[in-house]
Structures are given as structure tokens and as C-alpha cells.
Design goal:
This protein is mainly α. It is built from 21 helices and no strands.
């Protein structure tokens, strides 16, 4: 099995476990602090992401790409220089942005978010900036080496520690008010990130073939060329992420003010935003662990193939990634659309936000393809084009939020539609850019067959849930119906040859079965 497929499988398994654990984390938070508390929590998260994006400067992707290229030629001296320059850059930026977040928290809470209670979650999350700055460099290094186990295990470590502390922290501060409970939830994230960093540092010390501390400052001073090479990739990558982070930072601000124009009270607006971003969106994004795993593996794989001028291999990797994104995203879309109500009821004890899932799920099929497409652009040195695409999508999304959410007839649903529009637009722009850049064959019937399979499996799932096993409890009926839908979907994929026997045989758990048959 190739490094690309092996690394992708490791990340998919770890991603599944991590997302499930993360969802447990969200369920605990939602049940302890309620919709309004989740709204406060989610209003603070975009500020955190923006600070981390600026601190990282897009270096994880740049490190992954340059380390993969240097490793292909056996240049360990260059690898060390990449690490030294990256650590010096992110370390310096984190020293700047950590106190900035603390100082700006009161202004952000009172002025921009229109809810002073967001001050406490903002304050609690600020220490995570220097922690993530260092851990992101180490993750980029392991990705570039195509050693995905340390990266995957660090994510698991983070979620396990976070979940272990989340209930304790929220319940500890809940008697003082939901804003303090939300801050407690944020602080558990900080401890989780710290545990992840400690693990990455241990694995780096154990696996490294180079020593960082000797002549650190000498390498940093002589690293101008390396810094320029990193920035050539990092700045456009940062641009893409920065645009997305800035748009996400302004999203709760625009939503809150748009709902105010529509006549929605502040407390109700916070609650509605919590339902959309704290309940519906995490469930919609849950299946993206597969495409995120593909994205992580694609950057070094595409970079290595490009460095060796293996054009056929580049197209082959893109075709693999697109097909896997489409078929996994298709299953996620129909499960979320058909079973939105019971899933939300079982997870959160309320189905209020199920309508958001039903409206947004079809559009999120594009979201599941977006990550791998952006990774391909980064691997092909087209990060600047990805940045422009992200900028266009973010501007359109923000304009649409204001245009739609200010209408009393739509309200928060207008924000949901705007997010969907932005997602579809960015994905289509990424795809168009790749088609122009490389020789890429579009197999139209694969897309048509996928949509047909989705429709058939979705109909089977709907009929099974509503007209079968009516005597079973809702949790058992939902699980049984999802299993039937998944089996029907998988069988149809094999019948239409979208999922091939030889590809299934590459999965370790199924390899023995196919050898016997």
C-alpha cells in the first residue's frame, strides 16, 4: 500500500474517532449550558480561529510541502532550517497575539458581538494561541514526512483530555452563570491542546533524525532563503484561511446585527445562532473527517509527484480524492437529510435545528469535496488562486447573510442559506481552477450515477424509518434504518462500479476476506 493511501486510512480512522469524541464534547456542552450558552461559546470560537490563523501564517501547509520535497532528495539540513525558521516565526507571532486577544476581549464582547457575556469565553481561550503555534509546526513536519500516526494520535489525545474535563469545568462554573460555564468549556479546550503539544514534542524527540537546539539562532539568522520559500506558499495559504477566518469572525457580528434589524431580540438571536452553529453545523461537518484526512495526505503526495514531474500520478491522486469525497459525502448527505429530526432529538433532546440540516445538507455535498480540491491547489503551488476563490466566496456569503437574514420572513434561515451559497461557490471555483491547471478528465457518468444512487438509498431510508419497525424505540429504529440505508448505498456503489473490489481489498480489515474469495 502506498504512503498516500496508508496515511489517508490512518487519518480517516483517527478522524472518525476524533469527530465522534468531538461530537460527544458538543453534546455535553449543549446539555449542560443550553442553547444560549452554546451561542456564547460559538460566538467566541471564530475569534480564536482568526488569532490562530494569523499566528500560524499558513506554515503547516508550507512546512508539509517543503519537508516532503527536501525528504525526497534526502536534504536533512534543509529540513532543519525549515523547522527552525517556522518555529521562530510562529513563536514570535504568538507572543504578539496572545496579549492582543486579552486586551481586545472587552471591546469585542461589548461592541462587536453585542453581548458582553462573550468576554469570559474570549478570555478563557486566549492561552491556546502560543500552544497551537508550536504544535502546528510539528504537525506540518510529520505530514511532510508522511508519518501520519503522530498527527492522528495527537488529535485523539486532545479530544480525550478535552472530554475528560468538559463536564467538570462547565459544571464547576455553571452556578456563577452560563457565561462562566461557556468559559469553562473553552478552558478545557486549552488543556486538550496542551496535552496534544506535549505528545507531539515527545514523538518528535523520539523520531527525529535532526537536532533542533544546536545552532538554532545561527540557522534562524541564515534562513532568509528558507523563509522566502515558506512565505511563497504560506502567504497565499494564509490568505485563504485568513479570509475564511475573517469572514467567520464577522459572521456572528453580521448575523447578530442582521437579526436585530429583522426585529429579533439579543437573547433570542444568540439562541438562534447557537442552534445553527452549535447544533446543526457541527453535525453537517462531522462527515468531513474523511475529506479532511484526504486533504492532509494530498498536499505532500501532490508536492512529491509535482517535484518529480509525475503528471499522470497527480491526475490519478486527484481522481482518487474526488471519487472518495463524492461517494462518502453522498452517503453523509442522504443520512443527514433523511434522519435530521431523530438525530437531533437523540443527540440534543430537541429537534429545533433539524430544519437547518434539511435545508443545508444537499449543499454540503460540495463542502465535502472542497477540502481535497484546496489541498490539490496548494500542492500544485496554486495557493494564490485558492485564496482568491475563498475571498470571492466569503464576500458573497457575508453579503448574502446581510441581504437574507435582515428579512423578517427568513431571519436565521437567511444566514443558513447564505453559508450554503458561499460553500457551493468556493467549491466550484476550486474545481474550475484545477481543470484549467492540469490535464483532468471528467467522468460525467460517475457524477450522474452517484446522484442516482443517493436518490435510491435516500428513498429506501425514508421508507424504512417511517414504515418499518414502528414498535422499536426511536434510537433503535434510527440506527437500524441508517444501517439499511448504508448497506443499500454501498451495494449500489459496487453495482455501478464506483467502488471497486480491488480498492476494498486495500482496506486492512477487508483484505483477508477478499483473499479467501
Amino acid at each position: 500500500m502506498s504512503k498516500f493511501l496508508k496515511g489517508t486510512l490512518i487519518l480517516i480512522v483517527a478522524g472518525l474517532i476524533t469527530r465522534v469524541l468531538g461530537f460527544i464534547n458538543r453534546i455535553v456542552v449543549a446539555r449542560v449550558i443550553g442553547e444560549e450558552g452554546v451561542g456564547l461559546y460559538m460566538m467566541a470560537v471564530p475569534t480564536l480561529v482568526l488569532a490562530i490563523t494569523i499566528t500560524q501564517m499558513g506554515l503547516p501547509v508550507a512546512i508539509s510541502k517543503l519537508v516532503a520535497e527536501a525528504d525526497a532528495t534526502g536534504d536533512q539540513r534543509k529540513v532543519k532550517k525549515i523547522l527552525v525558521v517556522s518555529l521562530a516565526t510562529t513563536g514570535g507571532l504568538s507572543i504578539l497575539f496572545f496579549p492582543t486577544m486579552v486586551l481586545l476581549a472587552p471591546l469585542l464582547a461589548k461592541t462587536l458581538f453585542t453581548d458582553p457575556r462573550t468576554y469570559y469565553p474570549l478570555l478563557a481561550i486566549s492561552p491556546v494561541v502560543p500552544i497551537v503555534a508550536v504544535s502546528s509546526v510539528l504537525r506540518g513536519y510529520f505530514q511532510g514526512k508522511q508519518q501520519m500516526k503522530p498527527y492522528a494520535y495527537s488529535q485523539l489525545m486532545e479530544q480525550i483530555v478535552r472530554i475528560s474535563l468538559i463536564a467538570f469545568c462547565t459544571n464547576l462554573f455553571l452556578p456563577y452563570g452560563i457565561e462562566y460555564a461557556a468559559a469553562g468549556a473553552m478552558f478545557s479546550s486549552v488543556i486538550g491542546e496542551l496535552a496534544s503539544l506535549v505528545y507531539l514534542m515527545y514523538m518528535f524527540k523520539r523520531k527525529k533524525k535532526i537536532k533542533i537546539r544546536p545552532q538554532f539562532f545561527s540557522y534562524a539568522k541564515s534562513g532568509k532563503e528558507t523563509f522566502i520559500s515558506l512565505m511563497r506558499i504560506a502567504l497565499p495559504t494564509t490568505g485563504s484561511r485568513l479570509i475564511g477566518s475573517i469572514a467567520w469572525f464577522f459572521e456572528p457580528i453580521v448575523v447578530a446585527n442582521s437579526l436585530a434589524i429583522a426585529g429579533v431580540a439579543t437573547a433570542l438571536a444568540t439562541k438562534q445562532y447557537g442552534e445553527l452553529t452549535g447544533y446543526a453545523l457541527p453535525l453537517l461537518m462531522l462527515p468531513s473527517f474523511i475529506t479532511y484526512s484526504l486533504s492532509t495526505s494530498l498536499v505532500p503526495a501532490i508536492s512529491e509527484a509535482a517535484a518529480r514531474q509525475q503528471l499522470f500520478m497527480i491526475e490519478h491522486r486527484v481522481q482518487q480524492a474526488m471519487r472518495l469525497s463524492l461517494i462518502t459525502g453522498g452517503l453523509a448527505t442522504i443520512v443527514l437529510y433523511v434522519f435530521a429530526d431523530p438525530l437531533m432529538q437523540l443527540m440534543y433532546g430537541t429537534s429545533n435545528s433539524a430544519i437547518f440540516i434539511k435545508v443545508m445538507a444537499p449543499f454540503f455535498l460540495f463542502y465535502y469535496c472542497q477540502g481535497p480540491l484546496q489541498a490539490v491547489l496548494q500542492g500544485l503551488d496554486l495557493a494564490k488562486a485558492a485564496m482568491i476563490n475563498s475571498f470571492i466566496g466569503s464576500v458573497v456569503k457575508t453579503v448574502c447573510i446581510f441581504a437574507l437574514a435582515t428579512r423578517p420572513s427568513l431571519g436565521i434561515m437567511g444566514a443558513a442559506l447564505a453559508i450554503s451559497i458561499g460553500t457551493v461557490l468556493v467549491t466550484l471555483l476550486h474545481f474550475a481552477t484545477i481543470v484549467k491547471a492540469i490535464s483532468y478528465s471528467i467522468y460525467l457518468f460517475e457524477y450522474i450515477y452517484t446522484l442516482l444512487i443517493m436518490a435510491i438509498a435516500g428513498a429506501v431510508g425514508h421508507i424504512t424509518f417511517h414504515y418499518s419497525w414502528s414498535s422499536l424505540p426511536i434510537n433503535m429504529r434510527t440506527l437500524a434504518s441508517i444501517i439499511v440505508t448504508t448497506v443499500v448505498y454501498t451495494v449500489l456503489l459496487i453495482i455501478f462500479k464506483l467502488l471497486k473490489r480491488e480498492e476494498l481489498a486495500r482496506i486492512p480489515l477487508l483484505r483477508l476476506f477478499f483473499r479467501k474469495n
